[in-house]
Amino acid sequence: MIKAKTDKPEGSRSRAQIIALFIALIVFIMLLFANFAYLNTQANYDKQYIGHAGELRVLSQRIAKNATEAAAGKAAAFKLLSDARNDFAQRWGYLKKGDPSTGLPPAPSTVRPEMRAVQLDWERLLKNTDAILSSEQTVLSLHQVAATLAETVPQLQVEYEKVVETLLQRGAPATQVAVAQRQTLLAERILGAVNTVLSGDENSQQAADAFGRDAARFGLVLNGMLQGNAALKISQVEDRDARARLTEISELFEFVSGSVDEILETSPQLFKVRESATNIFTLSQTLLDEASQLASRFENLAGGRNTGTIGGYVLALLALMSIILIGLVMVRETNRQLRETAEKNERNQNAIMRLLDEIEDLADGDLTVTASVTEDFTGTIADSINYSVDQLRDLVATINLTAGQVAAAVQETQATAMHLAQASEHQAQQICEASTAINDMARSIDQVSANAAESSAVAERSVEIANKGNEVVHNTIHGMDNIREQIQDTAKRIKRLGESSQEIGDIVSLIDDIADQTNILALNAAIQASMAGDAGRGFAVVADEVQRLAERSSAATRQIETLVRAIQADTNEAVISMEQTTTEVVRGARLAQDAGVALEEIEGVSKILAALIQSISNAAQQQTSSAGQISLTMNVIQQITTQTSSGSTATAESIGNLAKMASQLRRSVSGFTLPAKSADNA
What we know:
mainly alpha; Four Helix Bundle (Hemerythrin (Met), subunit A); Helix Hairpins; 11 helices; 89% helix
């Protein structure tokens, strides 16, 4: 035991050493990972620095190329030049101020000299680039004008050559032919001056002035050939074909004359654009070399970080040494623990053998045994065994006492169980009779429910019939209303027919008056014809015919008047009949409406009756369900009573078995030896 105590400080010291070594190992590993992360981050930064510097080299040449093409009038080059400028400015900004999106910091201070050189040339290149981009519209417009002139001037030359041929064929004066030929050469000079202006070299300003003078000269000569010019000693061309071509030339020349001012105004700006493009080309070469030096400087920075790599190796070596030391300390601690365990096992083995010797008689049922309690690990076991023996003594004594009490109680319980079984059988018979009566009542209630359901169906059928009758009455009323409206409409038309017949009577009266007047006129004509003698015989014949026609008209008029009066009488009778019919229809509609009200009352009463019958049917069905449920419950109670009777019989048998088991229990504990006091109590 003393040795074990002296070994505790040694074990604590070993654990402290292991913990310290583990802490050192964790620190070394964390430093190793931190060093690796730092080197990896710096390598990533160096890669981005080198990438941006390399792109600056490419962009410097791209800017020079696009600037030259833009100055030459290519529209797409301006967009490319702007993109290259913006890309260069963005990447240069990353090197100067860092890139927040990727976490790239500004370039280290060790490359400041190289960056300062690039900055100076970049500012000059940016200034020239902006000058070109700001003149985009001017340059494109001027080149567009030049392209149009390049198409127009050759047409002027061709037309003037045709004018020369026409003048030669028509025998025009030699001075006119010479002037026309000089116009061809002058057009060539105009085109050459425009090309010189577009080239943007040192002669572009002089070429622009020459272009203005030549264009003005060309216009004056052309106007002189058309209208004459005494100051220039140019006579007017008289030939019609030549004048037609000169007119066409004048129309073509309007664009040339209109472009003179624009070319003269924009040629200095174009010269500046050309100069800026030349400066950009020169600066791009210098910027290329400086960007190359900057990229090389970044590559040298990446190669100069060997200290971090060596530090990583040192940290890895220290971590490995910590692992080795931890292993050595753990092996030493394990060997020490093995020695202590062997010594402890030997002491425990001796204590176990001593305890087994003391409790050997306990296996034979001797409860008087007491184990010795020592300081060994078996001391606790011995104490527990002594406690268990004490409890076992009490248990055996209690079993002996309880077995006697159980035997006495079992006899009383068995008699009670037999009496309970007999009572359960009698109860089962009573329940069976009650269940039969309830089943008969359920069948009667079910018959009542069926009759109520049938009555409910009949009542619902009555409701449907009353409803259909109500619909028929409503349809009848609607039909009578339609008939009444049609009769009233017919009466109105018959009235209008009577009014029309009255008008016909008036017209017939008028015709009758006309016939009477015609008859009178015919008599007068006959009298006048008879007075005329032989000269009026022909007219007398006509007068007779007119008189007969008047008499026939009068007779026909009287017949029409008779018919009209008959029509008016029939019309009045029809109107009266229609009014009587309308009255009867209204009366029939009222009767039908009263019948509809009565049918609605019948329908309401039938619905109430159907609801009451349905309620009776539902109540009967509910009583039927309740009676069935009661019957099922009585059957369950009967089954439970039967089971109770069977259980009571089984209980009586089990109680008999329990008495036997109590006797067996007393015999089973009789083998234990108790102290004298415990035995007396038992």
